[in-house]
Design a protein that fits this description.
Blueprint (H helix, E strand, L loop, with lengths): L1 H7 L3 H43 L8 E2 L5 E2 L2 H19 L4 H12 L7 H10 L9 H11 L3 H12 L6 E6 L2 E5 L4 H16 L9 E6 L2 E6 L5
Antiparallel strand pairs: 1-2, 3-4, 3-5, 5-6
Bound molecules: 2-acetamido-2-deoxy-beta-D-glucopyranose (2 copies).
Keywords: Membrane, Transmembrane, Transmembrane helix
Length: 227
């Protein structure tokens, strides 16, 4: 309207100038509008990408796998579940001796063996990750609770008197002593090295204590008098 009016009034040259000016104004506003729309669109696209990136609209069974990618492959689900389970197991581990004793009692319905505190200290010093795995302790000692010390000692003596690849170790005054030839120097030396590491901190074996190792199983015998 404004353009038509300016066109009607005044001489042509002026009209021409005013027309040009009006057109320029329209073009400016048009351009500004386009610019605004461009920015709005760009912002919206960026927002959608951001949203999808952080909150992917994926089925509920999609699992984040170890390297951070999303995947619903069954193996990835198994791996993810196992990783989560392991984390939970790590979180559950005993953080103190009292904790460990409580768990031992709950699991095996009996108190832990004497000097369990020393075992706990050693395990802590060695940064043991799975503290509450007491099955080896429990099952190694279990057969001996029902035998008298003299019976155990006589059986060990008998065991060591044959040429039967059985090796015995006795700890006296904190020093391990190798008994019998067992499976030759290799295993004997390795076992002695192992025992030397903790023999000092286990005065429970200062009296007559004997280990015999036979095909991976560990037999322990000792005089029960200092327990
Ligand atoms: C397990 O814990 C570690 C760090 O403690 C963490 O980086 C990892 O994402 C956790 N895994 C799961 C499946 O929760
Ligand atoms: C246990 O962990 C601590 C701290 O990370 C470290 O200084 C120490 O050397 C570790 N001990 C063993 C036996 O690995």
């Amino acid at each position: 309207m404004a353009i038509l009016e300016t066109f009607r009034a005044g001489p042509w040259g002026q009209h021409k100038y005013q027309l040009l000016k009006a057109a320029q104004e329209i073009s400016y506003y048009y351009h500004a509008r386009v610019t605004k729309r461009t920015w709005t669109t760009t912002f919206l696209v960026a927002a959608v990408i951001f949203f999808l990136w952080h909150f992917p609209l994926l089925p509920a069974n999609f699992n984040r796998i170890a390297n951070g990618r999303w995947c619903d492959h069954p193996i990835s689900i198994l791996a993810s579940d196992a990783s989560r389970g392991f984390n939970e197991t790590l979180m559950r581990q005993s953080k103190s001796l009292e904790d460990a004793v409580t768990k031992y009692r709950r699991q095996y319905n009996m108190p832990p063996p004497p000097h369990f505190d020393k075992w706990y200290d050693l395990a802590t010093q060695r940064n043991t990750t799975l503290m509450d795995e007491y099955d080896t302790i429990y099952h190694s000692l279990l057969p001996f609770w029902g035998l008298s010390p003299s019976t155990i000692r006589s059986r060990v003596k008998e065991d060591l008197s044959f040429d039967n690849v059985v090796m015995g170790i006795s700890i006296r005054n904190g020093e391990p002593i190798h008994l019998g030839n067992g499976q030759g120097d290799f295993q004997g030396n390795a076992a002695m090295k192992q025992f030397k590491k903790f023999a000092q901190s286990y005065p429970i074996w200062t009296s007559s204590s004997t280990f015999t190792m036979s095909r991976g199983s560990l037999f322990l015998t000792r005089s029960y008098t200092d327990w």
